[in-house]
């Protein structure tokens, strides 16, 4: 199960554990570390989707310096600064360092979660390189700039706005299992509902349009217990 990955950098053990537990219980894969050195070692293994970065950290580098380093390392990664200071100058410094958002302590856990999901949605939009304009999906081609789906003979296949948003999200995350709830929040911009089957219905309609055999999908595959995954055709 591949959930959005979050790296939490917080030196206070109690706050680190509390945030890690809360976010992990809301479909985020959280790794928590206590300082910049450990953050760098974790980044060397894999760049996360989002970094929650405390401003006041022990060691030679504060959160602002680490945010600048992160942004130089990746234009895509989401960065949220965490600080106990209410001074607007700190907020400006954080944003100028490359952060996407800023949360002042003490924060309400639900607010932190909402900020995380908002930045993750924006990061998905940043994930598509400008050169990526057409994506092959089975025997079809998705034209991202024209918002069109073309069949094998270059004919236009009608798509609703919601169907295009789902296909675009798959195109930006190939070979990555995406949960139903995350797809719903990312493409519909609304909170999840455990009884909401809107994503399943849209996937069913999409499969009828792009799959050679919709009852045996090979392009948009079901990942049991997670959701769906786009599998690009072999070159």
Please name the defining characteristics of this protein.
235 residues; alpha/beta; five-stranded parallel sheet; four-stranded antiparallel sheet; 40% helix; 20% strand
Class from secondary-structure proportions: alpha/beta
The largest sheet, given as strand count, sense and whether it forms a barrel, is: 5 strands, parallel
Count of runs of 4 or more consecutive helical residues: 8
Show unreliable segments: 127-131, 189-195
Spatial order of strands in the largest sheet: 2-1-3-4-5
Oligomer: single chain
Helicity level? 40-55%
Number of strands: 12
The ordered string of helix (H) and strand (E) elements is EHEHEHEHEHEEEEHEHHEE
The shape, in one word, is elongated
Please report which band the strand proportion falls in: under 5%, 5-15%, 15-25%, 25-35%, 35-45% or over 45%. Answer: 15-25%
Q: How far do the termini sit from each other?
A: 26 Å
Structure, described:
- It is a single chain.
- The chain is an alpha/beta fold and about 240 residues long.
- The chain has 8 helices and 12 strands.
- The chain has a 5-stranded parallel sheet, sandwiched between helices.
- Strand 4 (about 80-85), helix 4 (about 90-95) and strand 5 form a beta-alpha-beta unit.
- The radius of gyration is 20 Å and the shape is elongated.
- The model is unreliable at about 125-130 and about 190-195 (pLDDT under 50).
């Amino acid at each position: 199960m591949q959930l959005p990955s979050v790296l939490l950098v917080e030196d206070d053990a109690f706050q680190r554990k509390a945030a890690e537990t809360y976010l992990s219980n809301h479909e985020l894969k959280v790794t928590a570390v206590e300082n910049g050195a450990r953050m760098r070692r974790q980044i060397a293994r894999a760049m996360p989707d989002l970094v929650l970065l405390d401003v006041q950290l022990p060691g030679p580098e504060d959160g602002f310096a680490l945010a600048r380093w992160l942004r130089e390392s990746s234009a895509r990664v989401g960065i949220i600064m965490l600080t106990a200071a209410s001074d607007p100058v700190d907020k400006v410094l954080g944003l100028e360092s490359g952060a996407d958002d800023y949360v002042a302590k003490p924060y309400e856990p639900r607010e932190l979660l909402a900020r995380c999901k908002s930045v993750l949605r924006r990061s998905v939009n940043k994930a598509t390189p400008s050169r990526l304009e057409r994506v092959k999906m089975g025997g079809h081609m998705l034209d991202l700039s024209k918002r069109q789906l073309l069949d094998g003979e270059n004919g236009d296949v009608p798509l609703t706005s919601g169907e295009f948003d789902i296909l675009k999200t798959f195109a930006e995350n190939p070979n990555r299992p995406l949960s139903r709830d995350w797809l719903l929040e990312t493409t519909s911009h609304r909170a999840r509902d455990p009884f909401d089957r809107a994503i399943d219905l849209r996937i069913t309609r999409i499969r009828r349009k792009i799959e050679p055999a919709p009852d045996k999908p090979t392009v948009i595959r079901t990942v049991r217990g997670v959701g769906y995954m786009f599998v690009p055709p072999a070159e």
